[in-house]
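Q: what sequence does this backbone want?
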């Protein structure tokens, strides 16, 4: 048998110089002074598949060829009727993470199986190569793309054939929860008069451990100078052109110059926080501000005791993660 002539294996990239390390966010990423980004966990990706246990199928779609914005779609194959839709935005400080990662693939797939829902898990451009608001711009493009299927004539058959577009939920964790809030705000100001939203109704949003920030300390932040400095650095890396810094409405929806929360484009909201999360007091403040605002919807909160930021992505089988999943499923089922 004739032997195949394979190209030689390329040599591994040269090691990065630790003396040029600018920001160490291990185990997530490292940023170097020359602008090099080392994303430590993003290589652990999995292909789309059909899960024989849950019966959830997945596939990848390109939403915008120019920007590279894409999504992984999840569909429970054991269905009889049209299903609610979850549009999910992954976390990662706007700088890392992927819908194709093993963690997010597993989490969103499990959510679909337990909630009996279709999901669109959005992949947006990452900072610092693509500074904020690129992530928000791509997420809005994805939301509009999904909404274009509400008349059953969009480019993706899974959405045309299987989704109840009157039962749409936006969800996300950390930076993805931040994006989720801003998508609901933008939808609130446009969907009623935008022909692209005909037949498409965002009924609820789920914010999991939202990445909100600000200049004035909130709660326990006052005693955590190092933590505050780190969050300031993360935001500065993600959005270096921001003139308002950590009080930019993109990261601080409670800032004085931020749009009023009464404009949130849904009628239900679930804000999930974790007891040991350094960002938890921001989520609690958002819940209180939304509850006290002139928004006409209903907001609920759910707290995971003894757990830290996005713990469910690292410990998906723990009791706290199962409790969080159960609460999300209940919320989606009631839409």
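A:
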């Amino acid at each position: 048998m004739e032997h195949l002539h394979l190209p030689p294996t390329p040599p591994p990239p040269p090691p990065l110089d630790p003396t040029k390390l600018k920001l160490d966010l291990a185990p997530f990423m490292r940023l170097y002074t020359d602008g090099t980004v080392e994303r430590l966990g993003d290589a652990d990706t999995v292909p789309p598949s059909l899960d024989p246990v849950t019966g959830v199928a997945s596939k990848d779609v390109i939403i915008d060829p120019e920007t590279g914005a894409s999504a992984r779609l999840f569909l429970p194959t054991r269905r009889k009727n049209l299903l609610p839709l979850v549009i999910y935005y992954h976390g990662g400080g706007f700088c890392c993470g992927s819908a194709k990662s093993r963690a997010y693939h597993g989490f969103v797939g499990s959510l679909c199986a337990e909630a009996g829902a279709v999901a669109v898990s959005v992949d947006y451009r990452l900072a610092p190569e693509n500074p904020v608001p690129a992530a928000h711009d791509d997420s809005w493009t994805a939301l509009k793309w999904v909404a274009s299927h509400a008349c059953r004539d969009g480019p993706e058959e899974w959405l045309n054939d299987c989704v109840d577009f009157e039962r749409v939920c936006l969800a996300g964790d950390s930076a993805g929860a931040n994006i989720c809030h801003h998508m609901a705000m933008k939808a609130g100001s446009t969907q009623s008069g935008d022909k692209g939203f005909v037949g498409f109704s965002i009924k609820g949003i789920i914010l999991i451990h939202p990445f909100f920030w600000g200049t004035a300390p909130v709660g326990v932040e006052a005693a955590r100078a190092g933590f505050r400095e780190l969050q300031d650095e993360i935001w500065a890396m993600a959005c270096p052109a921001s003139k308002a810094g950590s009080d930019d409405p993109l990261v601080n929806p409670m800032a004085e110059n931020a749009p009023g929360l009464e404009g949130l484009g849904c009628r239900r909201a679930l804000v999930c926080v974790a007891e040991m999360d350094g960002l938890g007091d921001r989520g609690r403040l958002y819940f209180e501000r939304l509850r006290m605002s002139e928004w006409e919807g209903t907001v609920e909160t759910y707290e995971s005791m003894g757990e830290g930021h996005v713990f469910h992505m690292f410990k998906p089988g723990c009791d706290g993660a199962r409790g969080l999943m159960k609460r999300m499923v209940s919320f989606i089922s009631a839409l």
